[in-house]
Amino acid sequence: MALAIMCSGGDAAGMNPAIKKFVDEVYKRGDLPFLIYDGLEGLIDNKIKRAHHHDVANILHRGGTVIRSSRSKRFFEYEYRKRAYENLQQHGIKGLIVLGGDGSFRAMERFSSEFEVNFVGIPSTIDNDINGTDYCLGFDTALNVVRDALDKIRDTASSFNRAFLVEVMGRDCGHLAIISAMASGAEVCVVPEVEFQSEELGKRLADEVKNGRNYALAIVAEGARKTTEVYNWLQDVVGLETRVTILGHIQRGGNPTVRDRLMAFDFVLLALDHLAEHTDANKVAVYQRGCFKLIEIEEVVSQKYQVPQRYLDAINHLD
Ligand code: F6P
After folding, report:
1. Active-site pick, 127, 129, 140, 260
2. Under 8 Å CB-to-CB from 69, ≥6 apart: which residues?
3. From ligand 1's centre to the CA of 171, what distance in Å?
4. Angle 86-88-90 (CA atoms, 0-180°, nearest 5)?
5. Nearest-5° angle of CA 226, CA 227, CA 233?
6. Choice from 176, 180, 219, 252 to test ligand 1 binding pocket (greatest atom count within 8 A of CB)
7. Is residue 263 located within the same domain as residue 191?
8. CA-11 nearest atom, ligand 1
9. Per-residue pLDDT tens for 83-116?
């Protein structure tokens, strides 16, 4: 049986270990692995190649994805989805694994409602914001990149009388920001999900500054869109000279952590088991309360991801 794997949307550490496991395991099971390059764009343009062991040699430890990814506008159009389907047919591909985020899964849901496509999604995004799963590939590696940056920023922050504001990624979600703030002992964390208590917190920190606090660390999630507001607040209300660091795409790179490698293996094995037994899969492999399982794609795309309440509650009790 011919099976394919592809990446879609923002790349995430853990994709390469997943691709390697896919190719090795498909051969082990006596099936034929294919790689789809450049995400949905490549699916439209027929960048589909039979995979060999040497294509995935020496990639386990590398960040990003060797088969590349894309955010495809063309896939929104029926004509291109039809072309993509014909390409899969041409190669005789009977099952597809898609490493991506909820936007990619939404696109696949549409695709599979129009054509006979048998696919399993594997949640992959550093934002860790896919409904139905506690974990998405790439999250742990990104957290460690942010933690490393924050530890270093704290070194310089504590050597001066200064506040540091660090903006971390998360298009609409504050999960990466909250865990980073907790793990790095930040005093302030601003995310889209929780109202920024600027008055109360400002008063408290300003008092602490008067009583000898000489630095502070504030983490702001990109999705909160409050970087300038928090910068002005740290300077004017809290009363500390402030520097801003926007970590940006550095957070998407880095060698996958052990956790991301092992999660990738388990997600892929589950997806392959399912594809071997079903011809109308259209599921997403998820991790819930310590267990791996498959859930319906509708469940994933029908609701927005909620950061666990205990993390949101932690925001107002950081320092
Ligand atoms: O993949 C998720 C993410 O890194 C978000 O955190 C961020 O908002 C977005 O992708 C950036 O997208 P791009 O790489 O297309 O600029």
Report:
1. 127
2. 7, 8, 9, 10, 11, 15, 38, 39, 100
3. 6
4. 65
5. 85
6. 252
7. no
8. 1
9. 999 999 999 999 999 999 999 999 999 999 999 9
- Stretch 292-318: mean pLDDT: 93
Final residue before a domain boundary, out of 252, 283, 311 = 252
| 106 and 146 belong to one structural domain | no
Q: Is the domain of 222 the same as that of 278?
A: no
Ligand 1 mutation pick, 40, 68, 126, 247, max ligand atoms within 8 A of CB: 126
- What residues are in contact with ligand 1 under a 6 Å CB criterion? 10, 71, 125-127, 169-171, 222, 252
Q: Are residues 294 and 190 in the same domain?
A: no
Whether 123 and 130 have beta carbons less than 8 Å apart is answered as yes
pTM of the model: 0.97
- The verdict on residue 308 lying in a domain is no
Do 84 and 224 belong together in one domain? no
Question: Which residue's C-alpha comes closest to atom 1 of ligand 1?
Answer: 10
Residue 127 is among the residues annotated as catalytic for this protein: yes
Is there a single domain that holds both residue 25 and residue 120?
yes
> Residue 169 CA: which ligand 1 atom is closest?
6
Residues 289, 274, single domain; the answer is yes
* Tokens of residue 125, six digits: 């995004």
Strand order across the 162-168 sheet: 188-190, 215-221, 162-168, 241-246
Q: Grade residue 316 by pLDDT with cuts at 50, 70 and 90.
A: confident
Taking residues 169-192, what's their average pLDDT?
97
* Same-domain check for residues 51 and 98: yes
- Of all protein residues, whose CA lies closest to atom 14 belonging to ligand 1? 10
- Residue whose Cα lies nearest atom 10 of ligand 1: it is 10
